[in-house]
């Protein structure tokens, strides 16, 4: 169940089309000239498009290297790694041959390439190899790091430099270039005898690879129309013509012709008319002229301030033509408000890479959380051998990591982002007093760790801000500790206080394993030194929702289980909203979620909870929502809450938000180049449907879906309109999901994209789909038309 109360609306599917009638618009470049070598070795043509065929590092990677894969102190296996000619993937050898798709990884799935011993694996197991010979390839999602040692330092550097160049070039590619490279990589694979000529059988193989089951008669007709040499083989310019026909986008051509008229080009005034109909903010003639200069490919047209169909498609496939408002991709919100006025990306059991019962703990989990914009991480600290502080999920079979290694990971990776807003440690301390000194020695030195209240900057002194109101902007690059603090009157004598995360008596038995009396006493020890580190995030038990009349105290944080938070939302909706307007609240999953499953964070955001902690290692719609919530504002991990959740006297109640205020209409038009779910089965073609979900206050939660299209994942067409009535649009997230329809079992996930309604642009837009792990599925897109009606 995706959200509290769904209004499910699905029409029965109409009779699916007998065959996919494939047409096509992303016009490809002109056919290659003889100097291009025709289509000989089409994979290398892809690298040529990247401008990397002459790069020495890339050429060395094409030849391949024998690198040692390092898994443990004794497992160091030599394997051949070789860049594929498409420039998009790397083939690697396995001891036991597997399916072809299990022998490659894709460049676009790489999160980072690190030199030397810069991973947990190489620090522990790579001592036999000089750091200069080592590199780590870190992947997006849950895939494990690849730790490698090269025969020489120069060879390691070639792979580091080469992968860095390929990633940079891939990131700089336009959507049209990505599509061109993608189709040529499949063309190369479909050419079974590598003679640079395509028989009809090979063309049919190509079509199945790109996820379309075209009628044989229609496919042969298209094939013969391009076979100008009449020899039942396509080569050179004939192949390019076939691909141009295959990639046509009739729906885009129709829109273009509505505005261009008979001359089949858009003048700047005509493009301006299109922008105004789109509902583009700041649509002016100068803006239209700027778009022509940016996206038009034909130099003559550009000189005359005209846009051709190619340029129009380039614009609509660019980030400016996407559904996400590009002005929201940088930090655009006020970052000088109190901490309690922000949603803050937060992780639960950050150290885990799998379940909380027996899964591995790793510093890599922290690094991956930082890469996803996380700004509040959890440290479950226990006393290890020799009093060394360790981190793991207590009383379980999860593995253990050193506290100091986590701190080192924070130093190296927590503030490498463009906008290094403050990071919070959610410290759950189970160590005895003797270990506290060791904790402190391992904390970051210098200016990172906040150890005392900071002086107010001159620009804010007139505001007389108290510590709980300190803004994120003024804490950039700093680490805050959330934990228990000794009462001021007893801070010198060191009286003990509990530092457990769980604060609720009624849930305590479920949330924590039973401990002996001695263990409980040990866990309750808090030294004055540790107490002094708690400056802006003082952990306190939530006793009442009524504001105390006292003056503001150092920023207080209450930790609630999801069950307790849901109870407060149901029973004291508005009071809880007001509470969260002035104080931080952290919500975490129930301990009964043994497999580290997540709850829906939207329910907690509806009431203004700031630190909604999720298991980042567990993919699913919950993490999609989290990624969508923090997709905007530069992905800095801080998003300003709506005004109704920031006002101390707010009347907003998520359980009773009032009448509908906004109508959202989404016409689902087409999809392009959806991924093939089972690459090892040539005849397995997806039957896609699109579902649009609204996640917001309970009264707004809804989902509607299109019919499915039979056997076409390449360019399915729907043309169906889905409509939603919203009562609290400022809180709503919109999730676009593509699934493979199955009449006898649950549908298979294909891709998704989630973003805030407030960042959704109107008009004709492309949705660039993501995988379950949040990796790009480029060039897979949805093409939709969005209308938002507000009072």
Count of spatially separate domains? 5
Could you tell me how far the N terminus lies from the C terminus, measured between alpha carbons in angstroms?
Answer: 31 Å
Instruction: Note the total helix count.
Output: 24
Strands in their spatial order, largest beta sheet:
16-15-14-17-18-19-20-21-22-13-23
Shape: globular
State which percent range the strand residues make up. Answer: 15-25%
* Helical residue percent band: 25-40%
Can you count the beta strands? Answer: 31
Which stretches are poorly predicted, pLDDT < 50 over at least 5 residues?
Answer: 1-40, 459-468, 489-499, 502-516
Provide mean pLDDT, rounded. 85
Q: If you compute it from the alpha carbons, what radius of gyration comes out, rounded to the nearest whole angstrom?
A: 28 Å
Looking at the chains present, what oligomeric state does this protein adopt?
single chain
CATH superfamily of the largest domain, called what? Phosphatidylinositol (PI) phosphodiesterase
Determine the CATH topology of the largest domain.
TIM Barrel
Largest sheet properties: 11 strands, mixed
Strand pairing plus helix content: what structural class?
alpha+beta
* CATH classification class of the largest domain: Alpha Beta
> At CATH's second level, what is the architecture of the largest domain?
Alpha-Beta Barrel
Enzyme class: hydrolase
Domain PI-PLC Y-box: 530-646
Catalytic activity: a 1,2-diacyl-sn-glycero-3-phospho-(1D-myo-inositol-4,5-bisphosphate) + H2O = 1D-myo-inositol 1,4,5-trisphosphate + a 1,2-diacyl-sn-glycerol + H(+)
Subcellular location: Cleavage furrow; Cytoplasm; Membrane
